[in-house]
Design a protein that fits this description.
Blueprint: H1 6-39, H2 45-76, E1 85-88, H3 89-100, E2 107-108, E3 114-117, H4 119-137, E4 142-149, E5 153-161, H5 177-189, E6 193-199, E7 202-210
Helix pairs in contact: 1-2, 2-5, 3-4, 4-5
Length: about 210
């Protein structure tokens, strides 16, 4: 089964290219400006430090993107080690939200409700989902996280609402870049299902796992 349909794949490639180009452009521009200052022997220390800081941020961003590409490659080749254990779902969600400094709501889950997952990989997937949700919501938008349980399943949701306006993003799975694809595959490799639903400027990502007994 294809991971993404052809349209989503096109959007994914465009998103990854765009994400890589931005930090690369920052590096090119900053190194050029710094070179000009050095050649003219007119280096201002504060300006130079600012340019170096920009380059460091761009390098960090590019490293994260490259790591996602490598992770996607490992997943595609089946070279992913999972150490699954019975993990209480609600503490996992709370830990991921705290790390992402996100909002929490609609958590109606028994503290002992467990899912069979690799804790580190699950937190990695949740972190990527929350980061994408925050990106969609923007500074004026909202992100909430839900955790609900039934007698058979645990359902985790991330809801992002972008403030309406002329700069609302186009929301689809491809626009999430390689990071969201990695999150989807990590969820699926651990026996969960991953679903992305959009309506206007709102996004809901649903991750469902069998209840682990």
């Amino acid at each position: 089964m294809a991971l993404l349909d052809s349209l989503a794949l096109f959007d994914l490639l465009a998103s990854v290219s765009h994400d890589l180009r931005n930090p690369l452009n920052t590096l090119v521009m900053s190194t050029g400006l710094l070179r000009d200052d050095l050649e003219c022997d007119s280096v201002d220390v504060n300006r130079a430090l600012d340019l170096v800081a920009r380059m460091e941020r761009a390098t960090t961003r590019m490293q994260a993107l490259i790591d996602d590409l490598l992770e996607a490659s490992r997943i595609a080749s089946g070279n992913v080690e999972l150490r699954r254990s019975h993990e209480p779902a609600l503490p996992l969600v709370r830990f991921a939200v705290a790390a992402a400094q996100g909002a929490v709501g609609d958590c109606a889950l028994d503290e002992q409700a467990c899912i069979l997952v690799d804790r580190a990989r699950m937190l990695e997937a949740l972190g990527k989902v929350l980061a994408f949700s925050a990106r969609i919501a923007g500074e004026a938008g909202t992100v909430s996280v839900g955790a609900l349980g039934t007698k058979d399943e645990v359902v985790l949701t991330a809801r992002a609402q972008h403030a309406r306006g002329p700069h609302a993003p186009v929301i689809n799975e491809g626009s999430g870049g390689m990071s969201l694809l990695v999150a989807r595959r990590l969820i699926e490799l651990q026996g969960g299902t991953f679903r992305l639903d959009t309506k206007g400027t709102s996004l809901v990502i649903t991750m469902t796992f069998p209840l682990s007994i």
